[in-house]
Amino acid sequence: MCQSFLFQIGSANFIWLTSDNMHHQWLLLAACFWVIFMFMVASKFITLTFKDPDGYGAKQEPLILTAVTKVEEVHVPEEKHWPEEFQPTGKALSGNLIRQPLVHMERLELLRNVCRDTALRDLSHTAVSKFVLDRIFVCDKHKILFCQTPKVGNTQWKKVLIVLNGAFSSIEEIPENIVHDHEKNGLPRLSSFSDSEIKKRLNLYFKFFIVRDPFERLISAFKDKFVHNPRFEPWYRHDIAPGIIRKYRKNRTETKGLQFEDFVRYLGDPNHRWLDVQFGDHIIHWVTYVELCAPCEITYSVIGHHETLEDDAPYILKAAGIDHLVSYPTIPPGITVYNRTKVERYFSGISKRDIRRLYARFEGDFKLFGYREPDFLLN
């Protein structure tokens, strides 16, 4: 009996010890799982914290890198209230591009303020004539109007529109001789539509054009048409240049070709129009932006500047809603930088009187688009 009693006590102690050991084992196992869980959480936190900032940043701004999939509202700072006429008429802009739109809204605000300046009315206003409508190219498929202002990279913008219109599948496929052949490039002019269709497109389409420093543009036109003439357009040297020389060269015994001084004297003459009529549409390479695009009569969505084209070209494509379809061709380094030395060199041998008369004609372009009066006129 005594032995049986001792056996029972021993069995109870064994069961209690066994139960206690199992309890400790379960506690140990639970502790292990807790440590593993905390390690996984810490690992995830470290991964997110020290992830490559470039890759992370790219995910935060998908609209910069990919096609627009969701349009966000543009928020303009409250201290500035933009009139309706300043708002772009194309597709809405991504909130990630808010910095660039402010630059363009300021340009449009300046334009409208100068347009209202009665003292500059003769220099800033023009009729929306057939001459203007001939300068505006149409892309109905994407509801875009582009006003051509020669000598500011317009060839490349024409290529963009040619691709958008479907005449060619890529910019690289477009032959150079086709770009300016308006019988073959698939770019209709706004003048080819009826009055009601013209009005509808002017009211509803995204509209833009490009400008550059007016004097630098004139130098570019002179070099391209009267010095190098790379497209072999003989009428500039054989017809237009002799007409300017006969009228404006002071030393008639000189036999050299058209000089920049002759060109400036012609452009600054208040009575230049009688020659312009003889030259026809060839004058588009040096007439004012006002005469080409009527910026005070047509409410443009964006006005790009040649000097900031690296930023303006992508912005225009995105504002028009076509950045996922086509890219602006690569811009060679330095080609858009304003060359003050070149401008001063070309004007160094020209009388102040002739320069002032030239500025008087192009003053509207300087004021409308925020270009500063040349330093050599102030001295």
List the topology elements.
Layout: H1 2-49, H2 53-60, H3 62-65, H4 99-115, H5 121-124, H6 130-135, E1 136-139, E2 144-147, H7 154-164, H8 176-179, H9 195-204, E3 206-211, H10 214-228, H11 235-248, H12 260-268, H13 273-279, H14 289-293, E4 302-305, H15 309-319, H16 340-347, H17 352-368, H18 375-378
Parallel strand pairs: 2-3, 3-4
Antiparallel strand pairs: 1-2
Helix pairs in contact: 11-12, 12-17
Strand content: under 5%
Q: What order do the helices and strands follow? A: HHHHHHEEHHHEHHHHHEHHHH
Gyration radius from CA atoms, angstroms: 34 Å
Count of individual helical segments: 18
Quote the distance from N terminus to C terminus.
130 Å
Q: What general form does the structure show?
A: globular
Could you give the count of β-strands? 4
Which strand order do you get reading across the main beta sheet?
1-2-3-4
Query: What structural class do you assign from the helix and strand content?
Result: mainly alpha
Helical content class: 40-55%
User: What is the makeup of the main sheet?
Assistant: 4 strands, mixed
Arithmetic mean pLDDT: 80
Parts with pLDDT < 50 across at least 5 consecutive residues? 1-19, 41-97
